[in-house]
Amino acid sequence: MPTTPDPFDLMIFARVAETGSFSAAAERLGLPKSTVSRRITVLEAQLGERLLQRSTRRNFLTEMGQRILIPAEQIIHEVDAVMAVAEHRQVTPSGRLRVSVPGDLAAISLAPMLAEFSKAYSEIQLELDLSPRYVDVIADGFDLAIRIGGEAQDLRLTTRHLVDLGIGLYASPQYSDRAGQPDTPEALAQHDILVLLADGVPVNWVLNKDAQLVPADMSGRRVCANSYELLFRLARSGAGITAMPDLFARPYLASGELVRILPAWSLAPAMVRAVFPSRQLMPRKTRVFLDALLGHLKPRPLRAPQPVPA
Q1: What is the pLDDT of residues 262-306, one digit of tens each?
Q2: In terms of domains, do 138 and 221 share one?
Q3: Which of 96, 107, 184, 276 gets the highest tally of CB atoms within 10 A of its CB?
Q4: Are residues 98 and 87 in the same domain?
Q5: Following DSSP, what letter does each residue of 109-152 receive, concatenated?
């Protein structure tokens, strides 16, 4: 009974049939001529029949060789198709990209980057999961997850540090004009405070200035919510003072919609990291998304003062 042939041997046979000689096929395949000859001999032994009639000038197909040539050529076509897909995806990132992102980060900060990314990479279908759950990247089929704070615990995943988010206190100019600005952390007790909830518990503020740590008096707490985005909107509407990542506040400081409260003080930064199944053989679609994230999140250098014309 014939034994199952190696598909690679069938590919070698198809190349020999195409070129008409062992030498030309070997050159086409990047193999030694002796290897090509030996693999054809092995293939013939497995199939139990001679496939080629050898001559000093050219090889001719036997009846058996003619019968298996089309299936052997089909293997080459399938391999070429696989290589074409791989080469296209390396040159032009494509396919579905599933990313888990904290909803607040996506809505407040990442929307412009996501819009630019979708325009720049039209062959990537970006699928964003903004649910607050801590997804299982591998079991749930995600290419990448962005996480804020916490420690990496899953040894199956690779972690890439993206940025440390500085956190400050912010309010609207309208609130500041109405209620004034505190000049010390203790004075926050006299102000309306908008506080983040984590696991149902208000997050207390510990302010830091030059390594001096001062717990804020939170007795002025007016609103608690488990959404940075809601607190952010409330602060912009003049409802009070809230703590938020400087990255979220940056464009609204520039537009005058927010002011920094106690600018010399800050809260502990929050680490933003990306986790993904493996750094080796990372799909190009994932790599370009990571690059876009880093470009958007990295701190922007201050512009050097421009010389005043004489």
Answers
A1: 999 999 998 999 999 876 668 889 999 999 999 888 765 434 434
A2: yes
A3: 276
A4: no
A5: IIHHHHHHHHHH-TTEEEEEE--SS---TTTTT-SEEEEESS--
